[in-house]
Write a structure and sequence with these properties.
Helices cover 36% and strands 24% of the residues. By secondary structure, the chain is of the alpha/beta class. A hairpin with a 2-residue loop joins β9 and β10 (192-200). It is globular, with a radius of gyration of 21 Å.
Amino acid sequence: MEFRDKRNPNHKPVRKAVIPVAGLGTRLLPITKSVPKELLPVVDVPAIQVVVEECVHAGIEEVIFITGRGKGGIEDHFDYNFELEKILEQRGKTEELERVRAISQLIRTISVRQKKPLGLGHAVLCARDVVEDEPFVVVLPDDLISSEPSVTTQLIEVYEKYGQGVVSTMPVPDEEVSRYGIITGENWAPSLHRVRTIVEKPEPGMTPSNLAVIGRYLLPPEIFDFLEDQEPDESGEIQLTDALSKLARERALVGYEFTGRRHDIGDKLGFLTANIAYGLNRPDLGPEVLSYLRKKVAEADEAEES
């Protein structure tokens, strides 16, 4: 099958995003024992708000959270807090009041409970009744990707041009391929690949590609049929990767090498580097953060020389 420009003014627009947030965040224990990892701050903004704002800027109209036990704080964050707003108003804290109100007005949200941790594929399948027969994006909140335009916007542009499902990819070092799902297929245009299959966490040297699937997917509603028919793996989970491979074989799937800087904030080092990177990009904090980093580098150089 060849990909062709399939712009169609009558095709259904991408209006919905599915964000799975039921995970336990065990890589960030002990803080995630009581605080959902999605509410951990990137400077002073919860990580989940960063990815929701990415969806908003891409034109998404509705976010569907796939939640689990102990994740009620995520829903609360995007709801009104009348008590807080009243106190801020009484104290004349206009700027803070506007920021708090803006969060509750960002976007329409819906929460669907994933009652058992049966894998990412199962989490996506939980959204079927809400997504219905529309294309939709899946955004994994562990992956923060700073780019302009956003990665979600980039995927929507590819989908609208070619009319096929799209997964975001990036090259990773050969020694790290065992941490990701790796695509195999053919490059047919700059940054675009015809995906033939996705190999989950292969051993180094066992795939012809080092292109990893990273945290953003734009999927047609047919993916739900593949997920529903998908047999659980040996751990009892339904893997999204398996359904994507079937989609690639029976329909088509585009692998798109996005432009942007990715931070895995489900990892302690990634969480720290994300806070540094986002802090550096803040006009109110960037110069001081940069000054501090330069000072620490100078101190380290002096210690090494001595």
